[in-house]
Amino acid sequence: MTTVMKHRSTGTAGGVEPEFRSFVLEMSTSLHRTAFLLCGDWHLADDLVQEALARTYSHWRKVRQADNPAAYVRRILINESRRHWRRHSPAQAGHAETTVPDLSDGVVDRADLLQALQSLPARQRATVVLRFVEGLSGPETAAALGCSEGTVRSQTSRALLKLKSVLNRGDH
Questions:
Q1: CA triplet 39, 88, 152: central angle to 5 degrees?
Q2: Looking at residue 104, what DSSP letter applies?
């Protein structure tokens, strides 16, 4: 957690460390899984989680006072993911276009699902990951993404149609 230590807390009182550590222990597995499914790379996922936790620590007073601190931190993570995609979009877009699915196996496995997830636009991928992997409700997903529940519903619907299309290509 060297990244976390570089950021300083903004005026929080003593005793923050144990509370923050407890929060990190509770959330880290979920945050790493979400980050991986958003970006498809464990190393990048670790970096995204570290930066999100560093920002969380820097704003701990505000985070812990939020109605849903977990949703608040997920939103930070998603914003970090978006920042990464904006900075690296030409390389990532080129990579996504050159990836060819392995059609030798008719069974949809983890790699096929990950590849299908990576074919989705970032916001659609985030809604699918939060709703179906993390098990968040529509309102919780909307809070994490900073959008309306209607947007979550429409993005989820579009994402599921695209996933179905991408995954069914391997059925021929």
A1: 50
A2: S
Where do runs of H (alpha helix) occur along 9-109?
16-39, 42-58, 60-65, 69-98
Tokens coding 148: 């309306």
- Dig out the tokens for 61 from the structure: 């007073």
Token pair listed for 24: 């990190």
Q: Residues 131-159: pLDDT tens digits?
A: 988 889 999 999 989 999 999 999 999 99
Sign of the Cα pseudo-torsion (114, 119, 120, 121, in order): positive
How far from the centroid of its chain's Cα atoms is residue 161's Cα? 20
Question: Model-level pTM?
Answer: 0.61
CA atoms within 13 A on the CB side of 12: 21
Residues whose CB is less than 8 angstroms from the CB of residue 43 and which lie 6 or more positions away in sequence, other chains included: none
Q: Smallest Cα–Cα separation from 125: which of 18, 42, 38?
A: 38
Dihedral angle sign, alpha carbons of residues 101, 82, 8, 69 = negative
C-alpha distances (whole Å) from 167 to each of 1, 34, 86, 132 are 37, 21, 27, 16
